[in-house]
Specification:
It is built from 16 helices and 20 strands. By secondary structure, the protein is of the alpha+beta class. A hairpin with a 2-residue loop joins β18 and β19. The longest helix has 22 residues.
Protein backbone atom coordinates (compact mmCIF):
# COMPACT_ATOMS: atom_id res chain seq x y z
CA UNK A 1 0.00 0.00 0.00
CA UNK A 2 2.24 2.70 -1.28
CA UNK A 3 1.89 6.24 0.07
CA UNK A 4 4.31 8.00 -2.27
CA UNK A 5 5.27 8.81 -5.76
CA UNK A 6 7.97 11.34 -6.01
CA UNK A 7 7.84 13.25 -6.68
CA UNK A 8 7.93 14.38 -8.91
CA UNK A 9 3.64 15.18 -9.28
CA UNK A 10 2.67 28.35 -10.63
CA UNK A 11 4.74 38.64 -9.76
CA UNK A 12 3.90 39.60 -13.05
CA UNK A 13 3.69 36.94 -15.61
CA UNK A 14 6.27 36.20 -18.17
CA UNK A 15 4.36 36.87 -21.36
CA UNK A 16 6.31 36.66 -24.52
CA UNK A 17 5.53 35.53 -28.03
CA UNK A 18 1.91 34.83 -27.12
CA UNK A 19 0.92 38.49 -27.30
CA UNK A 20 -2.70 39.25 -27.97
CA UNK A 21 -1.78 40.44 -31.43
CA UNK A 22 -1.38 36.79 -32.31
CA UNK A 23 1.16 34.11 -33.04
CA UNK A 24 1.27 34.70 -36.76
CA UNK A 25 -1.22 35.24 -39.53
CA UNK A 26 -2.96 31.89 -39.21
CA UNK A 27 -6.68 31.65 -39.46
CA UNK A 28 -7.21 31.17 -35.74
CA UNK A 29 -5.65 34.52 -34.86
CA UNK A 30 -8.00 36.37 -37.19
CA UNK A 31 -11.03 35.52 -35.07
CA UNK A 32 -11.59 37.78 -32.11
CA UNK A 33 -14.45 35.86 -30.51
CA UNK A 34 -14.26 32.83 -28.28
CA UNK A 35 -14.53 30.31 -31.11
CA UNK A 36 -15.40 26.64 -30.55
CA UNK A 37 -14.33 25.12 -27.21
CA UNK A 38 -10.79 23.72 -27.13
CA UNK A 39 -8.98 21.23 -24.92
CA UNK A 40 -5.23 21.77 -24.59
CA UNK A 41 -3.12 18.80 -23.57
CA UNK A 42 -0.44 19.73 -21.04
CA UNK A 43 2.42 17.30 -20.41
CA UNK A 44 4.29 16.89 -17.13
CA UNK A 45 6.76 14.37 -15.75
CA UNK A 46 4.81 14.20 -12.52
CA UNK A 47 2.65 11.17 -11.90
CA UNK A 48 -0.32 12.66 -10.08
CA UNK A 49 -2.03 16.02 -9.53
CA UNK A 50 -1.13 18.20 -6.58
CA UNK A 51 2.66 18.21 -6.66
CA UNK A 52 2.73 21.60 -8.41
CA UNK A 53 -0.39 23.29 -7.01
CA UNK A 54 0.38 26.47 -8.94
CA UNK A 55 -0.21 24.46 -12.13
CA UNK A 56 -2.61 21.71 -11.12
CA UNK A 57 -5.09 22.59 -9.80
CA UNK A 58 -4.65 26.40 -9.92
CA UNK A 59 -3.73 27.08 -13.56
CA UNK A 60 -6.02 24.33 -14.82
CA UNK A 61 -9.02 25.64 -12.92
CA UNK A 62 -8.20 29.31 -13.59
CA UNK A 63 -8.22 29.03 -17.37
CA UNK A 64 -11.47 27.05 -17.25
CA UNK A 65 -13.05 29.70 -15.02
CA UNK A 66 -11.90 32.69 -17.08
CA UNK A 67 -13.17 31.12 -20.28
CA UNK A 68 -16.36 29.67 -18.74
CA UNK A 69 -15.19 26.28 -19.97
CA UNK A 70 -14.35 27.39 -23.51
CA UNK A 71 -10.65 26.60 -22.94
CA UNK A 72 -9.69 23.60 -20.84
CA UNK A 73 -6.36 22.05 -19.93
CA UNK A 74 -6.15 18.27 -19.87
CA UNK A 75 -3.10 17.14 -17.89
CA UNK A 76 -1.02 14.29 -19.28
CA UNK A 77 0.97 12.76 -16.42
CA UNK A 78 3.92 10.33 -16.29
CA UNK A 79 5.67 11.75 -19.38
CA UNK A 80 9.20 10.42 -19.00
CA UNK A 81 8.56 9.85 -15.30
CA UNK A 82 11.40 8.28 -13.32
CA UNK A 83 13.83 8.76 -16.23
CA UNK A 84 16.63 11.34 -16.05
CA UNK A 85 15.62 12.79 -19.43
CA UNK A 86 11.93 13.07 -18.63
CA UNK A 87 11.72 16.85 -18.85
CA UNK A 88 13.57 16.82 -22.15
CA UNK A 89 10.90 14.42 -23.41
CA UNK A 90 8.23 16.95 -22.42
CA UNK A 91 9.98 19.77 -24.31
CA UNK A 92 10.47 17.66 -27.41
CA UNK A 93 6.90 16.40 -27.24
CA UNK A 94 5.55 19.95 -27.15
CA UNK A 95 7.83 21.00 -30.02
CA UNK A 96 6.63 18.05 -32.11
CA UNK A 97 2.97 18.80 -31.45
CA UNK A 98 2.41 15.64 -29.43
CA UNK A 99 1.30 17.92 -26.59
CA UNK A 100 -0.18 21.42 -26.84
CA UNK A 101 1.38 22.66 -23.59
CA UNK A 102 4.02 21.48 -21.16
CA UNK A 103 5.49 22.42 -17.81
CA UNK A 104 9.17 21.78 -17.04
CA UNK A 105 11.79 23.18 -14.70
CA UNK A 106 13.82 25.93 -16.35
CA UNK A 107 16.91 24.01 -15.19
CA UNK A 108 16.44 21.55 -18.06
CA UNK A 109 16.99 24.08 -20.84
CA UNK A 110 20.78 24.27 -20.40
CA UNK A 111 20.95 20.56 -21.28
CA UNK A 112 19.27 21.43 -24.59
CA UNK A 113 21.56 24.28 -25.61
CA UNK A 114 19.63 27.20 -24.05
CA UNK A 115 21.58 28.92 -21.24
CA UNK A 116 19.48 32.05 -20.78
CA UNK A 117 17.67 30.67 -17.70
CA UNK A 118 20.78 29.80 -15.69
CA UNK A 119 20.53 32.91 -13.52
CA UNK A 120 17.26 31.59 -12.05
CA UNK A 121 18.95 28.49 -10.65
CA UNK A 122 22.47 29.76 -10.02
CA UNK A 123 23.52 28.24 -6.66
CA UNK A 124 22.51 30.25 -3.58
CA UNK A 125 21.53 33.29 -5.66
CA UNK A 126 17.74 33.22 -5.22
CA UNK A 127 17.73 32.12 -1.60
CA UNK A 128 14.41 33.35 -0.16
CA UNK A 129 10.76 33.23 -1.14
CA UNK A 130 10.39 37.05 -1.18
CA UNK A 131 13.33 37.30 -3.59
CA UNK A 132 11.95 34.50 -5.75
CA UNK A 133 8.63 36.31 -5.99
CA UNK A 134 10.38 39.58 -6.81
CA UNK A 135 12.32 37.91 -9.63
CA UNK A 136 9.23 36.18 -11.04
CA UNK A 137 7.41 39.52 -10.88
CA UNK A 138 10.20 41.38 -12.67
CA UNK A 139 10.91 41.60 -16.36
CA UNK A 140 13.79 39.14 -16.12
CA UNK A 141 11.96 35.90 -17.05
CA UNK A 142 10.31 37.56 -20.04
CA UNK A 143 13.72 38.44 -21.45
CA UNK A 144 14.83 34.85 -21.03
CA UNK A 145 11.87 33.37 -22.90
CA UNK A 146 12.81 34.49 -26.39
CA UNK A 147 15.63 31.95 -26.59
CA UNK A 148 13.11 29.08 -26.48
CA UNK A 149 12.41 29.66 -30.16
CA UNK A 150 15.51 27.57 -30.89
CA UNK A 151 13.74 24.60 -29.25
CA UNK A 152 10.62 25.22 -31.37
CA UNK A 153 8.41 25.97 -28.38
CA UNK A 154 6.76 29.17 -27.18
CA UNK A 155 7.38 30.33 -23.62
CA UNK A 156 4.20 31.38 -21.84
CA UNK A 157 5.36 32.01 -18.30
CA UNK A 158 7.75 31.21 -15.48
CA UNK A 159 6.26 30.35 -12.09
CA UNK A 160 7.65 30.16 -8.58
CA UNK A 161 8.14 26.84 -6.81
CA UNK A 162 9.81 25.54 -3.68
CA UNK A 163 13.33 26.41 -2.57
CA UNK A 164 15.42 23.26 -2.66
CA UNK A 165 17.55 22.39 0.35
CA UNK A 166 20.38 19.85 0.70
CA UNK A 167 19.16 16.68 2.42
CA UNK A 168 21.44 13.84 3.50
CA UNK A 169 21.49 10.31 4.86
CA UNK A 170 24.28 10.36 7.46
CA UNK A 171 24.73 13.95 8.65
CA UNK A 172 23.71 17.50 7.71
CA UNK A 173 25.57 19.03 4.78
CA UNK A 174 26.90 22.26 6.23
CA UNK A 175 30.24 23.22 4.67
CA UNK A 176 32.01 21.85 1.57
CA UNK A 177 33.84 19.25 3.68
CA UNK A 178 30.51 17.49 4.34
CA UNK A 179 29.88 17.15 0.59
CA UNK A 180 33.20 15.64 -0.44
CA UNK A 181 32.92 12.14 -1.82
CA UNK A 182 29.12 12.15 -1.63
CA UNK A 183 26.85 10.93 -4.42
CA UNK A 184 24.23 13.70 -4.61
CA UNK A 185 21.04 13.45 -6.66
CA UNK A 186 19.51 16.42 -8.49
CA UNK A 187 17.32 16.93 -11.54
CA UNK A 188 19.23 16.87 -14.80
CA UNK A 189 20.92 20.24 -15.37
CA UNK A 190 24.43 21.14 -16.47
CA UNK A 191 24.54 24.02 -14.02
CA UNK A 192 23.36 21.93 -11.07
CA UNK A 193 25.89 19.20 -11.90
CA UNK A 194 28.69 21.77 -11.98
CA UNK A 195 27.58 23.18 -8.63
CA UNK A 196 27.57 19.73 -7.03
CA UNK A 197 31.04 18.97 -8.40
CA UNK A 198 32.28 22.33 -7.10
CA UNK A 199 31.53 21.08 -3.59
CA UNK A 200 33.45 17.85 -4.10
CA UNK A 201 30.41 15.62 -4.58
CA UNK A 202 29.42 13.46 -7.54
CA UNK A 203 26.19 14.50 -9.28
CA UNK A 204 23.52 11.90 -10.00
CA UNK A 205 20.30 12.52 -11.89
CA UNK A 206 18.40 9.49 -10.60
CA UNK A 207 14.82 10.27 -9.61
CA UNK A 208 11.63 8.58 -8.51
CA UNK A 209 12.00 4.90 -7.69
CA UNK A 210 15.66 4.99 -8.75
CA UNK A 211 16.34 7.59 -6.06
CA UNK A 212 14.49 5.47 -3.50
CA UNK A 213 16.58 2.46 -4.42
CA UNK A 214 19.76 4.50 -4.30
CA UNK A 215 18.96 5.71 -0.79
CA UNK A 216 18.08 2.20 0.36
CA UNK A 217 21.25 0.69 -1.11
CA UNK A 218 23.54 3.47 0.08
CA UNK A 219 24.66 4.47 -3.42
CA UNK A 220 23.06 7.92 -2.99
CA UNK A 221 24.09 9.93 0.06
CA UNK A 222 22.07 13.09 -0.46
CA UNK A 223 19.67 14.96 -2.71
CA UNK A 224 17.94 18.32 -3.12
CA UNK A 225 14.20 18.77 -2.54
CA UNK A 226 11.81 21.42 -1.31
CA UNK A 227 10.25 20.62 2.04
CA UNK A 228 6.75 20.08 0.65
CA UNK A 229 7.80 17.24 -1.66
CA UNK A 230 10.16 15.88 1.02
CA UNK A 231 7.40 15.86 3.63
CA UNK A 232 5.00 14.05 1.32
CA UNK A 233 7.27 11.06 0.79
CA UNK A 234 8.37 8.84 3.68
CA UNK A 235 10.55 6.92 1.23
CA UNK A 236 12.71 10.05 1.14
CA UNK A 237 12.71 11.33 4.72
CA UNK A 238 13.01 7.97 6.45
CA UNK A 239 16.40 7.05 4.95
CA UNK A 240 17.61 10.68 4.70
CA UNK A 241 16.67 12.56 7.90
CA UNK A 242 19.16 15.48 7.82
CA UNK A 243 18.16 18.87 6.36
CA UNK A 244 20.27 22.02 6.21
CA UNK A 245 17.70 24.64 7.17
CA UNK A 246 19.43 27.84 6.09
CA UNK A 247 20.91 26.70 2.77
CA UNK A 248 18.63 27.14 -0.23
CA UNK A 249 20.56 25.81 -3.19
CA UNK A 250 18.16 27.15 -5.83
CA UNK A 251 14.44 27.37 -6.49
CA UNK A 252 12.63 25.15 -8.89
CA UNK A 253 11.18 27.55 -11.44
CA UNK A 254 8.65 25.81 -13.71
CA UNK A 255 8.25 27.14 -17.24
CA UNK A 256 4.92 26.84 -19.05
CA UNK A 257 5.59 26.22 -22.74
CA UNK A 258 3.36 25.75 -25.76
CA UNK A 259 3.43 24.41 -29.29
CA UNK A 260 3.52 27.48 -31.59
CA UNK A 261 1.28 26.01 -34.28
CA UNK A 262 -1.37 24.95 -31.76
CA UNK A 263 -1.34 28.33 -30.07
CA UNK A 264 -1.73 30.01 -33.46
CA UNK A 265 -4.97 28.11 -34.04
CA UNK A 266 -6.55 29.64 -30.95
CA UNK A 267 -8.66 32.74 -31.36
CA UNK A 268 -7.36 35.98 -29.89
CA UNK A 269 -9.94 35.65 -27.09
CA UNK A 270 -8.79 32.14 -26.25
CA UNK A 271 -5.17 33.27 -26.19
CA UNK A 272 -6.16 36.14 -23.92
CA UNK A 273 -7.79 33.75 -21.44
CA UNK A 274 -4.75 31.48 -21.48
CA UNK A 275 -2.26 34.30 -20.96
CA UNK A 276 -4.35 35.81 -18.16
CA UNK A 277 -4.53 32.44 -16.42
CA UNK A 278 -0.75 32.04 -16.62
CA UNK A 279 -0.35 35.62 -15.34
CA UNK A 280 -2.57 34.84 -12.36
CA UNK A 281 -0.75 31.56 -11.68
CA UNK A 282 2.60 33.35 -11.65
CA UNK A 283 1.29 36.01 -9.28
CA UNK A 284 -0.11 33.38 -6.93
CA UNK A 285 2.68 30.85 -7.24
CA UNK A 286 4.86 31.76 -4.27
CA UNK A 287 1.89 31.88 -1.91
CA UNK A 288 0.93 28.38 -3.00
CA UNK A 289 4.28 26.81 -2.13
CA UNK A 290 5.89 28.93 0.62
CA UNK A 291 5.01 26.78 3.63
CA UNK A 292 8.35 25.66 5.05
CA UNK A 293 7.63 26.94 8.56
CA UNK A 294 4.27 25.15 8.57
CA UNK A 295 5.89 21.88 7.51
CA UNK A 296 8.70 21.94 10.06
CA UNK A 297 6.74 20.71 13.13
CA UNK A 298 5.46 17.65 11.31
CA UNK A 299 8.92 16.82 10.01
CA UNK A 300 10.39 17.22 13.48
CA UNK A 301 7.74 14.87 14.85
CA UNK A 302 8.78 12.28 12.27
CA UNK A 303 12.37 12.37 13.51
CA UNK A 304 13.83 14.73 10.89
CA UNK A 305 16.76 16.74 12.17
CA UNK A 306 17.55 20.26 10.98
CA UNK A 307 20.85 22.13 11.27
CA UNK A 308 22.02 25.61 10.32
CA UNK A 309 25.26 26.15 8.45
CA UNK A 310 27.53 28.65 10.21
CA UNK A 311 28.56 31.96 8.66
CA UNK A 312 31.93 30.37 7.86
CA UNK A 313 30.18 27.40 6.22
CA UNK A 314 28.03 29.71 4.10
CA UNK A 315 31.06 31.73 3.04
CA UNK A 316 32.92 28.53 2.14
CA UNK A 317 29.99 27.32 0.02
CA UNK A 318 29.86 30.60 -1.89
CA UNK A 319 33.62 30.55 -2.40
CA UNK A 320 33.35 27.03 -3.81
CA UNK A 321 30.73 28.24 -6.29
CA UNK A 322 32.85 31.19 -7.47
CA UNK A 323 34.44 29.33 -10.42
CA UNK A 324 31.00 28.26 -11.61
CA UNK A 325 29.79 31.88 -11.56
CA UNK A 326 32.88 32.93 -13.48
CA UNK A 327 32.02 30.37 -16.13
CA UNK A 328 28.30 31.11 -16.55
CA UNK A 329 28.92 34.86 -16.50
CA UNK A 330 30.99 34.56 -19.64
CA UNK A 331 27.63 34.84 -21.31
CA UNK A 332 26.90 38.61 -21.24
CA UNK A 333 23.15 38.10 -20.94
CA UNK A 334 23.50 35.71 -18.00
CA UNK A 335 25.91 38.12 -16.32
CA UNK A 336 23.32 40.88 -16.74
CA UNK A 337 20.53 38.73 -15.28
CA UNK A 338 22.64 37.76 -12.27
CA UNK A 339 23.47 41.43 -11.66
CA UNK A 340 19.78 42.37 -11.85
CA UNK A 341 18.85 39.62 -9.39
CA UNK A 342 21.57 40.80 -7.01
CA UNK A 343 20.15 44.34 -7.22
CA UNK A 344 16.70 42.98 -6.35
CA UNK A 345 18.27 41.05 -3.50
CA UNK A 346 19.67 44.23 -1.96
CA UNK A 347 16.20 45.78 -1.79
CA UNK A 348 14.13 42.67 -0.91
CA UNK A 349 13.87 41.67 2.76
CA UNK A 350 14.62 37.93 2.98
CA UNK A 351 11.67 37.16 5.21
CA UNK A 352 11.80 35.27 8.51
CA UNK A 353 14.42 32.58 8.94
CA UNK A 354 13.35 29.00 9.52
CA UNK A 355 13.55 28.61 13.31
CA UNK A 356 14.64 25.13 14.42
CA UNK A 357 12.92 23.90 17.61
CA UNK A 358 15.25 22.70 20.32
CA UNK A 359 14.18 19.07 19.99
CA UNK A 360 14.59 19.10 16.20
CA UNK A 361 18.39 19.23 15.98
CA UNK A 362 21.24 16.88 16.71
CA UNK A 363 21.35 13.21 15.79
CA UNK A 364 18.32 11.61 14.21
CA UNK A 365 16.76 8.72 16.11
CA UNK A 366 17.31 5.22 14.84
CA UNK A 367 13.98 5.45 13.03
CA UNK A 368 11.43 8.20 12.67
CA UNK A 369 8.89 7.97 15.49
CA UNK A 370 5.89 8.59 13.25
CA UNK A 371 2.72 7.63 15.03
CA UNK A 372 4.37 4.99 17.16
CA UNK A 373 3.66 1.32 17.48
CA UNK A 374 1.29 -0.47 19.81
CA UNK A 375 2.48 -0.36 23.39
CA UNK A 376 4.35 -3.49 24.40
CA UNK A 377 3.69 -5.10 21.00
CA UNK A 378 -0.04 -5.40 21.77
CA UNK A 379 -2.09 -7.06 19.04
CA UNK A 380 -5.35 -8.93 18.76
CA UNK A 381 -4.84 -12.61 19.57
CA UNK A 382 -8.41 -13.89 19.36
CA UNK A 383 -10.34 -14.81 16.23
CA UNK A 384 -12.60 -11.95 15.11
CA UNK A 385 -15.22 -11.65 12.36
CA UNK A 386 -12.50 -10.11 10.19
CA UNK A 387 -10.28 -13.21 10.20
CA UNK A 388 -9.88 -14.77 6.78
CA UNK A 389 -8.58 -14.13 3.29
CA UNK A 390 -10.23 -11.29 1.36
CA UNK A 391 -9.87 -10.09 -2.21
CA UNK A 392 -10.74 -6.91 -4.07
CA UNK A 393 -10.29 -5.54 -7.61
CA UNK A 394 -10.71 -1.93 -8.69
CA UNK A 395 -9.58 0.36 -11.48
CA UNK A 396 -7.57 3.57 -11.46
CA UNK A 397 -10.77 5.53 -12.05
CA UNK A 398 -12.42 3.86 -9.05
CA UNK A 399 -9.39 4.67 -6.89
CA UNK A 400 -9.47 8.31 -8.02
CA UNK A 401 -13.20 8.49 -7.23
CA UNK A 402 -12.46 7.50 -3.61
CA UNK A 403 -10.73 10.88 -2.99
CA UNK A 404 -7.19 9.59 -2.39
CA UNK A 405 -4.20 11.74 -1.67
CA UNK A 406 -2.56 12.57 -5.05
CA UNK A 407 0.51 10.53 -4.11
CA UNK A 408 -1.63 7.36 -4.00
CA UNK A 409 -2.81 7.39 -7.61
CA UNK A 410 -0.03 5.17 -8.95
CA UNK A 411 -0.17 1.75 -10.64
CA UNK A 412 0.87 -0.19 -7.55
CA UNK A 413 -2.27 1.05 -5.77
CA UNK A 414 -4.94 -0.23 -8.15
CA UNK A 415 -5.75 -3.62 -9.63
CA UNK A 416 -6.32 -6.82 -7.64
CA UNK A 417 -5.26 -7.31 -4.01
CA UNK A 418 -5.42 -9.97 -1.32
CA UNK A 419 -5.78 -9.08 2.37
CA UNK A 420 -5.14 -11.80 4.95
CA UNK A 421 -6.21 -11.19 8.56
CA UNK A 422 -5.40 -13.79 11.20
CA UNK A 423 -5.26 -13.21 14.97
CA UNK A 424 -3.53 -9.87 14.90
CA UNK A 425 -1.32 -10.45 11.87
CA UNK A 426 -2.12 -9.13 8.39
CA UNK A 427 -0.64 -9.15 4.92
CA UNK A 428 -1.60 -7.02 1.93
CA UNK A 429 -0.35 -8.42 -1.39
CA UNK A 430 -1.12 -9.00 -5.02
CA UNK A 431 -2.86 -12.37 -5.61
CA UNK A 432 -0.30 -15.16 -5.42
CA UNK A 433 2.51 -12.93 -4.11
CA UNK A 434 4.42 -13.84 -0.99
CA UNK A 435 4.20 -11.45 2.00
CA UNK A 436 7.26 -9.33 2.82
CA UNK A 437 8.12 -6.94 5.68
CA UNK A 438 6.77 -4.09 3.53
CA UNK A 439 3.39 -5.80 3.08
CA UNK A 440 2.78 -7.18 6.57
CA UNK A 441 1.45 -5.50 9.69
CA UNK A 442 -0.08 -6.25 13.07
CA UNK A 443 -3.51 -5.03 14.07
CA UNK A 444 -5.82 -4.51 17.01
CA UNK A 445 -9.60 -4.82 16.81
CA UNK A 446 -11.68 -2.87 19.32
CA UNK A 447 -15.40 -2.91 18.61
CA UNK A 448 -15.97 -1.66 15.07
CA UNK A 449 -12.48 -0.09 14.81
CA UNK A 450 -9.34 -1.76 13.52
CA UNK A 451 -5.88 -0.24 13.95
CA UNK A 452 -3.01 -1.40 11.74
CA UNK A 453 0.61 -1.02 12.83
CA UNK A 454 3.24 -1.24 10.10
CA UNK A 455 6.73 -0.25 11.21
CA UNK A 456 6.37 3.24 12.61
CA UNK A 457 3.03 3.99 10.92
CA UNK A 458 -0.47 3.66 12.37
CA UNK A 459 -3.74 3.49 10.39
CA UNK A 460 -7.26 3.31 11.82
CA UNK A 461 -10.52 2.38 10.09
CA UNK A 462 -14.11 1.55 10.87
CA UNK A 463 -15.04 -1.92 9.65
CA UNK A 464 -18.17 -3.97 9.05
CA UNK A 465 -18.75 -7.50 7.79
CA UNK A 466 -22.01 -8.55 6.11
CA UNK A 467 -22.57 -11.77 4.15
CA UNK A 468 -18.88 -12.45 3.41
CA UNK A 469 -18.24 -8.84 2.47
CA UNK A 470 -15.82 -6.64 4.45
CA UNK A 471 -16.06 -2.85 4.23
CA UNK A 472 -13.57 -0.33 5.61
CA UNK A 473 -14.22 3.35 6.20
CA UNK A 474 -11.69 6.02 7.10
CA UNK A 475 -12.21 7.65 10.46
CA UNK A 476 -11.05 10.99 9.04
CA UNK A 477 -9.61 14.04 10.71
CA UNK A 478 -7.27 12.48 13.26
CA UNK A 479 -4.15 13.70 11.42
CA UNK A 480 -3.74 17.48 11.81
CA UNK A 481 -2.54 18.10 8.24
CA UNK A 482 -4.76 15.56 6.51
CA UNK A 483 -6.72 16.89 3.54
CA UNK A 484 -8.19 15.52 0.34
CA UNK A 485 -5.78 17.46 -1.86
CA UNK A 486 -2.44 17.19 -0.07
CA UNK A 487 -2.31 14.98 2.99
CA UNK A 488 1.49 15.16 3.34
CA UNK A 489 1.56 11.43 3.93
CA UNK A 490 -0.58 11.51 7.06
CA UNK A 491 -3.92 10.11 5.92
CA UNK A 492 -4.79 6.43 6.07
CA UNK A 493 -4.14 4.62 2.76
CA UNK A 494 -7.17 4.77 0.51
CA UNK A 495 -6.50 1.29 -0.89
CA UNK A 496 -8.60 -0.35 1.84
CA UNK A 497 -11.74 1.71 1.24
CA UNK A 498 -12.15 1.89 -2.56
CA UNK A 499 -14.41 -1.20 -2.83
CA UNK A 500 -15.81 -3.80 -0.41
CA UNK A 501 -13.64 -6.88 0.05
CA UNK A 502 -14.97 -10.38 -0.75
CA UNK A 503 -14.05 -13.27 1.55
CA UNK A 504 -12.45 -16.12 -0.39
CA UNK A 505 -11.30 -18.23 2.53
CA UNK A 506 -11.84 -18.49 6.25
Amino acid sequence: MSRRRCVRRAGAVVLVVLALAGCGAQAGSKAGGPGPPVVLRMATVYGVPGFMPQVDPYLVSRVAKLSAGNVQIDMTYHVGEDTPGGEQQVVRGVAAGKYDLGVVGTRVFDTMGVNSFQALTAPMLIDSYPLEQAVIGSGIPAQMMGSLDTLHVTGLGVLADGLRKPIAVRKPLLGPADWRGLSFAAFRSREASQAIRALGATPSDVSGTQLDQGLDSGTVGGFEKNLLIYRMHPDLWKPAPYVTANVNLWPQTPAVIGNPARLARLTSQQRAWLTEAVRDAAARSTGLIDGDARLLPGLCGDGIRFADASHADLAALRNAFAPLYAQVERDPQTRQFIAEINRLKQHTPPGPALVIPGDCSGMAPGSAPGNGSPAGGTKTTQVTPLDGVWEVTYTRAELAAAHPDPSEVVPENYGSFTLTLRRGHSSFTRPGAQPSPQTTATYVVRGDTITFYQGQETWKYKWSVYRQTLTFKKLGGQAPDCSLSVSLGQCEPTTFVVQPWRRVSA
